[in-house]
């Protein structure tokens, strides 16, 4: 049904728009419809459909069987009834001509097919393949459906088509995959019909909806009385809020009016013809009915304001005409096709005659009854379209020309076929600060088939920070790596798959002056280690001398531990500090629930006494302890002596672990530099076998 235009402060009405001739429509379309690089809608190659070769097509494309001829007669009879009873409605899209110039009923153009690829079993895979594989062509006249509709096999061969071609192909794949899908002939907005997404937010930038945390209600909880409030004060407060909101809305409206980038009103709003796919709930466990825009492959709610009305729908079995009012778009439509008041079915599926009242002249009543009897027992013939085939090579390389570019609001998305780029790049998203897309803010890149298992890279153009993300299985167990340069000690943050590591390390940050390590699931409850470095000896800093030969001096090592419930709090260390250069060791213990001050032990160097590796000197001068909650047996000097001896040994081991961490970071940078310099792509043995079959 024709969607009516919204009433606005414009003198032009829908009736005025209808009165325009076709040439005026095309002139308006050339000036108003701007399809940029985002849509890839303009056919720059100048492809001519009249020059295609149809000599090799099967005979079913060039002739009609007796059942198809009977179907066309019944369709014409239905169309006559429809135009007689609904003279104000637009003509139905029933039997356009195919590529051979033969009239074919639209339902017979749908060829249910299940392609032998895993992604094509789901609606998202089918939709993304169709929108990526085909080049969009606008309708010749934006307010009328096309006079011809080519078969899905021809559309796949030449990789181009209009919205009806996209829809029939996608519906064929969805029905073959088991979905209850239908082709829709209706009306949509200018942006949807012209594939203009420059005003939309990129789907990759949309944040998932936050799921509110459910609080466990406790019916035995004491409910305290609420603080009494004055109803008069509440009314006055609500009144003030309404006044402020009204003033804010007025200011916003003024700002919107004064905006320079405000899109112009479409003179053909509500009249632009579009085709899309309807998927009903039920089959394939689809919970809710939804639309699919074949140009983008995105799913939409049936209440989406971009869809302005529906004339008819069809699948491979039948044809339905919408009898509902579309003044408010599609949001109030019922999609119960068994409801004869909402949908007029062409061929009754339960031996019931058509619900259209027969108000034709009495002379034709006998012929009408005969045709109605035929229609009651009529069965839709099989599709005349040949089997839809997509080779493995075509499935792996869906983009015409090997690349696709889509422009969104302040963003640009680029797609490539697998193995089209030597570095495995398959997708790039560039986010801009302005609508003109001149100042880059962020770049995200996705990769496939890389042997180093890199699958995504994020680049912050403001800080030049690069973050690489890896799949599980990397040689160095890398999960993510953030850096500005692959040079050592320039600021690196590395994340690991800690479950595959023995030490439980999941994150490490290192720069020229410090290193911080984070741990998970360790038996000693260690969760963080922080190391501070001093400056290297400048005498040793000579050309050719590596960092291993001139290591950074370790100034301090801090370790933090989680609570060990098996130990008393005053014996369970929370923080451990080793001041290596000053030869100071400090322990801070955990607190019990009732404690306020933590127990501490500090071991200092004795002033004026030389330090020896094999000697431990303990006296009251170099020991500071405060353990108010521990028993007397834990406060004797013998226990402190054993603790000091243990700490000296652990400090020595810690220094070696720090050197090992430095060496590991150098190895990671060396390996990553080599991987980026010599990028290798892996080819599955199954993919090779499939390519050899071509």
UniProtKB/TrEMBL annotation:
Superkingdom per UniProt: Eukaryota
Any one Gene Ontology cellular component term annotated for this protein: motile cilium
Keyword Iron: no
Domain CEP76/DRC7 peptidase-like: 273-346
GO BP term, pick one: cell differentiation
Keywords annotated in UniProt: Cell projection, Cilium, Coiled coil, Cytoplasm, Cytoskeleton, Differentiation, Flagellum, Spermatogenesis
Subcellular location: Cytoplasm, Cytoskeleton, Flagellum axoneme
Annotated region (Disordered), positions in chain: 1-21, 233-261
Compositionally biased residues, Acidic residues: 1-14, 243-258
Stored SUPFAM superfamilies: Cysteine proteinases
UniProt-listed PANTHER family: DYNEIN REGULATORY COMPLEX SUBUNIT 7
Entry protein name: Dynein regulatory complex subunit 7
């Amino acid at each position: 049904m024709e969607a009516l235009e919204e009433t606005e402060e414009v003198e032009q009405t829908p009736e005025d728009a209808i009165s325009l001739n076709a040439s005026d429509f095309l002139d308006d379309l050339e000036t108003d419809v701007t399809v940029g690089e985002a849509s890839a809608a303009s056919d720059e190659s100048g492809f001519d459909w009249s020059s295609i070769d149809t000599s090799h097509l099967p005979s079913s494309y060039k002739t009609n069987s007796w059942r198809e001829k009977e179907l066309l007669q019944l369709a014409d009879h239905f169309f006559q009834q429809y135009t007689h009873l609904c003279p104000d409605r637009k003509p139905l899209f029933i039997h356009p001509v195919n590529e051979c110039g033969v009239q074919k009923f639209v339902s017979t153009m749908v060829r249910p097919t299940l392609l032998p690829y895993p992604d094509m079993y789901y609606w998202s895979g089918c939709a993304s393949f169709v929108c990526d594989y085909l080049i969009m062509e606008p309708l010749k006249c934006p307010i009328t459906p096309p006079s011809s509709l080519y078969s899905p096999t021809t559309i796949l061969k030449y990789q181009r088509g209009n919205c009806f071609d996209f829809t029939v192909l996608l519906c064929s794949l969805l029905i073959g995959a088991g979905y209850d899908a239908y082709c829709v002939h209706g009306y949509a907005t200018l942006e949807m019909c012209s594939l203009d997404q420059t005003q939309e937010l990129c789907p990759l930038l949309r944040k998932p909806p936050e799921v509110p945390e459910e609080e466990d209600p406790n019916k035995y909880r004491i409910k305290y009385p609420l603080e009494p409030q004055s109803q008069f004060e509440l009314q006055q407060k609500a009144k003030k809020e309404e006044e402020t909101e009204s003033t804010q809305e007025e200011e916003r409206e003024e700002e919107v009016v004064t905006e320079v980038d405000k899109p112009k009103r479409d003179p053909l709003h509500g009249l632009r013809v579009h085709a899309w796919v309807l998927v009903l709930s039920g089959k394939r466990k689809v919970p809710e009915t939804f639309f699919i825009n074949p140009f983008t492959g995105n799913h939409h709610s049936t209440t989406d304001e971009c869809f302005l009305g529906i004339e008819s729908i069809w699948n491979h079995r039948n044809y339905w005409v919408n009898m509902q009012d579309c003044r408010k778009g599609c949001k109030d439509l019922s999609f119960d096709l068994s409801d004869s008041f909402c949908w007029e079915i062409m061929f009754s599926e339960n031996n019931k005659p058509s619900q259209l009242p027969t108000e034709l002249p009495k002379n034709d009543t006998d012929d009408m009854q005969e045709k109605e009897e035929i229609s009651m027992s009529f069965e839709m013939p099989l599709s005349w379209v040949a089997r839809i085939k997509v080779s493995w090579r075509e499935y792996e390389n869906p983009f015409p020309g090997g690349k696709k570019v889509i422009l969104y609001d302040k963003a640009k998305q680029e797609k490539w076929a697998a193995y089209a780029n030597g570095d495995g790049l398959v997708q790039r998203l560039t986010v801009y600060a302005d609508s003109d897309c001149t100042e880059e803010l962020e770049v995200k890149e996705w990769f496939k088939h890389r042997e180093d298992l890199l699958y995504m890279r994020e680049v912050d153009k403001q800080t030049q920070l690069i973050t690489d993300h890896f799949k599980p299985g990397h040689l160095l167990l890398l999960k993510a790596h953030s850096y500005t340069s692959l040079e050592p000690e320039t600021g690196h943050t590395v994340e690991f798959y800690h479950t595959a590591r023995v030490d439980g390390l999941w994150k490490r940050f290192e720069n020229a002056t410090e290193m911080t390590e984070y741990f998970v699931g360790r038996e000693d409850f260690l969760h963080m280690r922080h190391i501070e470095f001093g400056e290297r000896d400048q005498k040793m800093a000579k050309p050719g001398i590596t960092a291993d030969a001139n290591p950074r001096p370790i100034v301090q090592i801090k370790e933090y531990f989680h609570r060990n419930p098996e130990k008393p709090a005053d014996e369970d260390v929370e923080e451990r500090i080793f001041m290596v250069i000053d030869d100071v060791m400090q322990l801070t213990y955990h607190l019990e629930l009732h404690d306020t001050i933590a127990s501490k032990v500090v071991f200092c160097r004795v002033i004026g006494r030389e330090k020896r590796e094999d000697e431990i000197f303990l006296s009251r001068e170099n020991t500071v302890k405060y353990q108010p909650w521990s028993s007397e047996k834990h406060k004797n000097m013998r226990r402190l002596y054993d603790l000091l001896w243990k700490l000296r040994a652990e400090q020595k081991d810690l220094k070696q672990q720090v050197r090992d961490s430095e060496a590991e970071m150098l190895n990671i940078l060396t390996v990553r530099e080599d991987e980026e310099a010599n990028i290798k792509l892996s080819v599955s043995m199954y993919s090779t076998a499939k390519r050899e079959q071509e």
